[in-house]
Amino acid sequence: SLDIEPVYETLKxxxxxxxxxxxxxxxxxxxxxxVSFIEKxxxxxxxxxxxxxxxKETVFK
Length: 61
What we know:
The chain is 23% helix and 10% strand. It is built from one helix and two strands. A two-stranded antiparallel sheet has the order 1-2. The chain starts with 28 loop residues before the first helix and ends with a strand.
C-alpha cells in the first residue's frame, strides 16, 4: 500500500456568466489563473477552453 496524502488547493472563482467570449484575454482573470494552475500541475499546456456545447463557445489560447 502506498502512503499517499492529498494536497488541497483553494482557488478563486468567478461571479459572472461567461457569455460568448471571442478571445482568451477576455476571460475573467480567475479563470485564466485556474487554467494556469491546471497547466502547472498536469504539466501539459491547455490550448482550448470550452465554455459550452456550441462551437462559438470555444476559446483558443
